[in-house]
Amino acid sequence: MRLLGMALAVGFLSTGTASAEPTASERGKAKLESKAYIPAFWPRGAYDLAWKQWGVAEKPKDYATAFNDRYGLHPAPYKNDGLPMGLRSAPYLALVKGMGLDCMMCHGGSILGKSYVGLGNSSLDIHTLFEDLYVAGNIPAKLPFTFTQTRGTNEAGAFSVYLLGYRNDDLSLREDFRDLGLHDDSCEDVPAWWLLKKKKTMYYVGATDARSVRSIMQFMMHPLTLRKDFERAEADFGDIQEYLVNIEPPKYPFAIDRKLADRGRELFSDNCAKCHGTYGEHATYPNKVIPIDEIGTDRKRFENIGLKFGEAYATSWFSRESPPKPIRPTTGYQAPPLDGIWATAPYFHNGSVPTLDGVLNSKARPKVFTRTFRTNEEDYDAVRVGWKVREVPPASATVSAYDRRKIYDTTQPGRGNGGHDYGDHLTADERRAVIEYLKTL
Asked: How confident is residue 74, by pLDDT bands cut at 50, 70 and 90?
């Protein structure tokens, strides 16, 4: 193959034919998968020593798999220096190889054992990852808030609120910390990147222009990132955004009852399309924000990022794009497109409903549950469409924080699974038909 490639290259050169320039989307993909945009948090050796925090006597033989299982990470489908998606080799100290984070920590997921860039990571325990790697790297750091209340969700909004509190409007570092209304109980599920292509506004409350390049750069607010670093990276993120809006969802891999799906399409059109759009050759998406009192789902994410942060963000470098793309207050949660919905369990903005069957039948939603947090075929429920779970009692006070995060307790703040009861009036057969149709999207 190498000889063939060399021969082709020589042939192009000899005829004077130049290879096509990469598109913005192709450039963005290459940059996203290869460049480090923030400095390292840990020395690279922390990866190899993390197992000493697991309560085991010796390093597991299949260490990469054991590491990924511990923290809910997945193999990288691109060259990544032997690290899983989400971790990235990055500058640390002089002569010391370092390791940091990238976007795929949260936006690199797995379904049926296959890794996908742009699929939300519904297995991640980022809090335990930081804690263990700090100890393994001999770094005396204490996390400033809870990064993960329940495994598979994270406090993405809290990261932005906290980190912007250390920045002036021009993103230079402040000497004093501004509390912009930090809350760490939103329990955010990670939406799929491929949904961005249809959206005019993004994030769960629909407050941000979906074509804002600077908004997707908020994760760069590492304490050692300088203002000039943001400015240098902006063009790259323009390309990265172009890649994000060109990602396609994976197709449902199992058999579909087409006759049942056709019946489901009719029911979907009558009951769901006004908020979630239509699909097929003449697809539409209304980009609707549903008032919080109408949708009735957990209010924490809606309430937790408030006026203080909004005002600080509105006067910051992030809002000074050209043309301007200001954030705006909204009244509730944005009803998302449903492309690839079969792959994006669990459901709702807080991941409180493990299957589509539960989305369409509020009485079928488990109250306290856990799952394997693996993503193989045996972990997937192809009938209810989502993750297989088992109901368990609430965690006792003696359960470790690591194990407690494996239990999703819908009675806890930010984790309510009520609301969105629009499918309750359907019969069981009608719900099965709608689910069959959703597999086709």
From this structure: very high
CA dist 19 and 195 (Å) reads 31
- Report the candidate in 189, 236, 246 with the shortest Cα–Cα distance to residue 38: 236
Please name which of 130, 191, 127, 143 lies closest in space to residue 334, comparing C-alpha atoms.
Answer: 191
Q: In 3D, which of 357, 350, 351, 356 has the Cα closest to residue 371?
A: 351
What is the gyration radius of the CA atoms in the chain, in angstroms? 22
Per the CB < 8 A criterion, the answer to whether 297 and 418 are in contact is yes
By residue count, the chain amounts to 441
Q: CB–CB of 59/138 below 8 Å?
A: no
Three-state DSSP at 31 gives helix
Whether 240 and 30 have beta carbons less than 8 Å apart is answered as no
Alpha-carbon gap, residue 261 to 299, rounded angstroms = 33
The pLDDT of 412-438, averaged and rounded, is 98
- Looking at the predicted structure, is the pLDDT value of residue 414 above 90? yes
pLDDT digits (tens, 9 = 90+) for 202-238: 999 999 999 999 999 999 999 889 999 999 999 999 9
- pLDDT for the residue numbered 14: 37
Q: How far apart are CA 441 and CA 436, in angstroms?
A: 10
Q: Which phi and psi angles does 79 have, rounded to 5°? A: -65, 130
Q: What is the pLDDT of residue 6?
A: 36
- How does DSSP classify residue 174? P
Let me know: does 132 contact 53? Beta carbons within 8 Å.
yes
Q: What is the DSSP letter of 18?
A: P
Model pTM above 0.85: yes
